[in-house]
């Protein structure tokens, strides 16, 4: 797994234009002008101050740690500098899992949380890089942040690294130990097959009569969904071969690879028939069905992991569920929303669950509610696409709601709640 996530092109948080000027306090939000920075400052102040405090606390914790602890830990600055350059620490580096290391690891966890609350692309990238660095320092994951790292990698990191990371922890789990004279290599998996059937990863859990961790299966489902979208786009491109020359289709084919996994899979690029694409699509859909059902039955059951995405006020309503469900929602919801068709797929699967679990009049009501919500979600998404206007027209406006992403707006939350809250109360109920 790579030590650092590469930065993508940054855009202004207010108007969305390309820029390279960031907030000097947190270095997680970008603005194209001083006017836009001042316009967003009132909303950004709290998050910016939290990041500054978290960075200061981490520096103080590391300085205290280096001065007081054993010699093998005193090269922390050198280790962090090597990771900044992309070099992973070797097996000779001691794992930061002892009680003496807990202040440093806790400070790093607080910094990850502060970065994630900014809700910007660079803030998420910073959170991802901090999480990866923390994983390499605490190889046996003493802070239990592996599920957070997996979600952040799927959202902004390398998808191949994300799959390698998820596969490593699904196979090893709490069995991984960094102690001993010959510790196992940390995350030795590289470029594993992301198209392999999920049953290979889930089979050991079934043999042991243990439920697989849903905290890893939700980001794994999102990763599989992204691959499914790419394959379906390639299949649709294949249909154009009857109308376009072969050379043109072959030339534009590479632009349909949105993930690094697809770019490395030469066997996928060599598929030249509709039947070949349909075979891959069928396998991915089967994996997604399996992951959806396993996550739906996890924790309190009754699909709470997926239903939590459709609450009227998810961050508050999630408190009714276990801490694991809250963690999954907090670090997965935005990634699913940013993926085109992600929420629609979850809604479709919840509708199928209603059809299976409910009977009689309840089934009819739930199906009508889900169908109504699906139409509303599509129509609102289309309207948001049509409203793309030059940002200069909004330069003088004081409308605070214009800076709020659609999926965080009150209208969106109300439409979600009205369409789904009653539907799933018919048979599933709340815990």
From TrEMBL:
A Pfam family the protein falls into: zf-MYND
Acidic residues bias: start-end ranges: 392-402
GO molecular function, one term: zinc ion binding
Annotated segments matching region Disordered: 382-405
Keyword entries, A-Z: Metal-binding, Zinc, Zinc-finger
Origin superkingdom: Eukaryota
The MYND-type domain, residue ranges: 12-48
Gene3D superfamilies the record matches: 6.10.140.2220
InterPro entries the UniProt entry points to: Znf_MYND
Name of the protein: MYND-type domain-containing protein
Source organism of the structure: Arthrobotrys musiformis
The organism's taxonomic lineage, starting at the top: Eukaryota, Fungi, Dikarya, Ascomycota, Pezizomycotina
């Amino acid at each position: 797994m790579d030590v650092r996530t590469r930065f993508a092109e940054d855009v202004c948080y207010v108007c969305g234009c390309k820029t390279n000027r960031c907030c000097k306090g947190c270095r997680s939000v970008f603005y194209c002008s001083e006017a836009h920075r001042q316009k967003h400052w009132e909303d950004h102040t709290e998050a910016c101050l939290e990041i500054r405090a978290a960075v200061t606390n981490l520096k103080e914790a590391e300085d205290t740690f280096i001065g007081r602890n054993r010699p093998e830990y005193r090269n922390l600055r050198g280790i962090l500098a090597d990771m900044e350059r992309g070099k992973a620490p070797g097996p000779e580096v001691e794992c930061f899992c002892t009680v003496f290391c807990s202040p440093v690891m806790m400070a790093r966890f607080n910094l990850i949380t502060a970065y994630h609350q900014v809700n910007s692309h660079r803030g998420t990238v910073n959170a991802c890089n901090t999480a990866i660095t923390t994983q390499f320092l605490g190889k046996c994951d003493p802070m239990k942040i592996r599920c957070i790292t997996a979600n952040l990698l799927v959202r902004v990191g390398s998808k191949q690294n994300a799959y390698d990371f998820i596969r490593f922890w699904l196979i090893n789990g709490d069995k991984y130990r960094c102690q001993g004279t010959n510790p196992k290599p940390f995350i030795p998996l590289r470029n594993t097959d992301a198209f392999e059937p999920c049953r290979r990863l889930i089979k050991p859990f079934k043999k042991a009569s243990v439920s697989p961790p849903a905290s890893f299966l939700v980001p794994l489902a999102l990763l599989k969904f992204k691959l499914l979208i790419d394959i379906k786009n390639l299949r649709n491109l294949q249909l154009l071969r009857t109308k376009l020359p072969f050379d043109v289709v072959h030339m534009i084919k590479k632009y349909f690879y949105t993930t690094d996994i697809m770019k490395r899979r030469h066997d996928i690029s060599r598929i030249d028939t509709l039947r070949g694409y349909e075979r891959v699509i069928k396998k991915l859909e089967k994996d997604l069905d399996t992951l959806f059902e396993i996550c739906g039955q996890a924790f309190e059951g009754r699909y709470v992991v997926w239903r939590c995405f459709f609450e009227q006020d998810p961050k508050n309503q999630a408190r009714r569920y276990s801490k694991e469900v809250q963690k999954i929602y907090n670090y997965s919801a935005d990634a699913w929303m940013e993926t085109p068709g992600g929420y629609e797929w979850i809604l479709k699967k919840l509708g199928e669950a209603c059809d299976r679990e409910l009977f009689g009049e309840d089934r009819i009501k739930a199906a009508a509610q889900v169908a109504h919500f699906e139409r509303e979600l599509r129509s609102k998404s289309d309207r948001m696409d049509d409203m793309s206007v030059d940002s200069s027209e909004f330069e003088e406006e004081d409308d605070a709601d214009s800076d709020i992403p659609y999926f965080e707006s009150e209208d969106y939350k109300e439409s979600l709640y009205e369409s789904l809250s009653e539907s799933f109360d018919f048979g599933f109920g709340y815990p």
